[in-house]
Amino acid sequence: MSHTGRGILTVVSGFAGSGKGTVMKKLIAEHDNYALSISATSRAPRPGEEEGVSYFFKTREQFEEMIKADALLEYAEYVGNYYGTPKDFVFSKMDEGRDVILEIELQGAMQIKKKYPDTLLIFLTPPSAQELYDRLKGRGTETDEVIAKRMKRASEEVQSVKDYDYLVINDNIDDCTARVHDIIQSAHHTTGHEAAMIEKLKTELEAII
Amino acid sequence: MSHTGRGILTVVSGFAGSGKGTVMKKLIAEHDNYALSISATSRAPRPGEEEGVSYFFKTREQFEEMIKADALLEYAEYVGNYYGTPKDFVFSKMDEGRDVILEIELQGAMQIKKKYPDTLLIFLTPPSAQELYDRLKGRGTETDEVIAKRMKRASEEVQSVKDYDYLVINDNIDDCTARVHDIIQSAHHTTGHEAAMIEKLKTELEAII
């Protein structure tokens, strides 16, 4: 790791078809300073899903306890199940100096930014709406109806992209991954993140003059 | 150049002894996307100084005309002479897509940030006050009195470092230069800088759904 001090918290969102998943995998494969946040959910595990790897599995009651205890960075209910980000895991990784990435959606991103304004919000997009459509179509796994729904969703999400800190165009996986990495690493050097260093310099300069 | 669109305006300041000059030289030698701003001054040219390279040389009257015409990004009077940054040069380079760097002091940095909040303010520092002292002493060209004056100045400047966007520690010229480069290049991807791209995506998505 090239940094000491507390890790950076980053939320990465993007249109379905933005290539977000691939970029995240590459980022984590190429650098050892990142930790991906693991969500908690009240839905039942599916075959092959592992506790603490895929999700932290909770009962509905346990999840509601976490909400009451303010133990989640953000949460939402989706098709009758809760999904959320446990604070514990995220903060302990950050304290170890790891840069934690949350791959979550718009509403969760906004919840976190409100509570923790230092959080870096990055949105990924293909270079054009046509390219987005072509990628979804090209997968060959989704019906025209599902694709139409995703494009509709994108046209709603785009209204809130300005509330993110960064918009990164995924025209090429390597370039996009490098850009996301540079953005997160640069955040280590904001004067907000370097507040302790500034205090150290103040104290030292007072002592030396 | 790896970007299209308007260039980024960056102010780089730092303690005397921070290695700022060396970092700037390296940055410009290694990348072709940067342009260094050239200051205007009302002081007389010294032997070897070239018009439009070292400075834009102006008479006192000409300089005061520029102040009146709001043709300067910032200016100050120092030992009876004016020094300032002409807008024309900076904005035309930015319009060409070049990232313009201003190597100026704290007061000028604050003047610019007030008028142009998108300006990136970067402050360079050695890793410690002791290291700053050792570098100034190690030059062997300055009297103890001058060194004491510079350390005093640093202890005043450090009070305003929090008003910069980034603090970059110059512990190693190569690392420091790479960090400054990554910070400036990342600024190309802020949602503010990508406002036109966001509008393009909105329009395209409206048309496609």
Briefly summarize what is shown.
Chain A is of the alpha/beta class.
If you average the pLDDT of chain A, what whole number results? 94
CATH architecture of the domain at 9-37 and 98-208 in chain A: 3-Layer(aba) Sandwich
Please give the share of residues in helix of chain A: 40-55%
What is the 3D shape of chain A? globular
Looking at how many chains there are and whether they match, the oligomeric state comes to: homodimer
Enter the CATH topology name of the domain at 9-37 and 98-208 in chain A.
Rossmann fold
Low-confidence stretches of chain A: none
Largest sheet of chain A: 5 strands, parallel
- The chain-level structural class of chain A is alpha/beta
Q: What's the CATH class of the domain at 9-37 and 98-208 in chain A, please?
A: Alpha Beta
The most extensive interface, with participating residues per chain, is: A-B, 43 and 43 residues
CA-CA gap between termini of chain A: 34 Å
Please state how the strands of the largest beta sheet of chain A are arranged side by side.
2-7-1-8-9
Strand runs of chain A, count:
9
CATH H-level superfamily of the domain at 9-37 and 98-208 in chain A: P-loop containing nucleotide triphosphate hydrolases
Structure, described:
The structure is a homodimer of 209-residue chains. The two termini of chain A are 34 Å apart. Chain A has eight helices and nine strands. With 209 residues, chain A is an alpha/beta fold. The mean pLDDT of chain A is 94. Helices cover 44% and strands 20% of the residues of chain A. The radius of gyration of chain A is 19 Å and the shape is globular. Chain A has a domain at 9-37 and 98-208: Rossmann fold (3-Layer(aba) Sandwich), CATH 3.40.50.300. In chain A, the strands form two sheets. The first copy, chain A, has a five-stranded parallel sheet with strand order 2-7-1-8-9. Chain A binds chain B through residues 123, 125, 128-130, 133, 148, 151-152, 154-155, 158-159, 161-169, 179, 182-183, 185-186, 189-191, 194-195, 197-198, 200-202, 204-209, and chain B through 123, 125, 128-130, 133, 148, 151-152, 154-155, 158-159, 161-169, 179, 182-183, 185-186, 189-191, 194-195, 197-198, 200-202, 204-209.
